[in-house]
Amino acid sequence: MGKCDQCIIKQFNALKSLTKEELVRISACKTSMTIKKGDVIFEEGDSLNGVYCVKNGICKLSKLSSNGKDQIVKIVVKGDLLGQRSLITEETANLQAIALSDMEICFIPKNEIVNDLVHNSRFSFDVLKEMAHDLKNADNVIVDMAQKTVRQRLAETIIYIHDNFGTNPDGTLSVLLSREDLANIVGTAVESAIRVLSQLKKEGLISTIGKRIKINNFEGLKRVE
């Protein structure tokens, strides 16, 4: 899948702060792999022993709650790193990662990259910055769950998917999430998510083509209460 120092993906994450020599060394020990849609990349409780760099595709990070339901914490996209906490701590994975599309990812062993954390302060700072950004987003999710309605959260999720992943030629969202995935992002029952989608359709804010969603009224969707 190519060499790390020549890979355009490194521009989108903390790997951009590594020197060419460090990237060449990492490239020699990384493992490149293709992941099929629906496959598990790692389970909650796994020892990661390294980081994954997403070269193509998207996946969901979720946590199983005590009632047996998944809560999707983050949608991970091309250019993101997975498992950065494993570089800092000895803890096992706190979340499960499942591919939402076919993916190309590279695994970099912890014992290779942790040395760079120690000796390259710019790289260390960028890793910490990305982890701080994830914590900020987690704070926002907690507040949104407590203060926003299911309608608002679902509308915002649809807009987020549009803004980050774009649309197909027919105007539908390019990323097809199941109704269960949408419910798990919003933190509600599947039935509630389906009911709200139906309401948004009746109000003319969205339409559907098969299972795909199309936004008809952006401003209206942003004002949903």
Secondary-structure blueprint:
Layout: H1 20-29, E1 31-35, E2 40-42, E3 50-56, E4 59-64, E5 70-76, E6 81-82, H2 85-88, E7 96-99, E8 103-109, H3 110-119, H4 121-147, H5 150-165, H6 179-186, H7 190-202, E9 206-209, E10 212-215, H8 218-222
Antiparallel strand pairs: 1-8, 2-7, 3-6, 3-8, 4-5, 4-7, 9-10
How does this structure look, described?
The chain has 225 residues and is of the alpha+beta class. The chain is 41% helix and 22% strand. It contains eight helices and ten strands. Helix 5 packs across helix 7 and helix 6 packs across helix 7. It is elongated, with a radius of gyration of 19 Å. The termini are far apart.
Structural features:
alpha+beta; 4-stranded antiparallel sheet
Care to give the gist of this entry?
The protein is 41% helix and 22% strand.
How much of the residues is beta strand, in percent?
Answer: 15-25%
Largest sheet: number of strands, sense, barrel closure:
4 strands, antiparallel
How many runs of DSSP E, i.e. beta strands? 10
The SSE string, one letter per element, is: HEEEEEEHEEHHHHHEEH
Overall mean pLDDT: 90
N- to C-terminal distance: 46 Å
- As residue ranges, the low-confidence spans are none
Helix content: 40-55%
- Our count of helices gives 8
Protein structure class: alpha+beta
User: How would you describe the shape?
Assistant: elongated
| Rg, alpha carbons | 19 Å
Tell me the strand order in the biggest sheet: 1-8-3-6
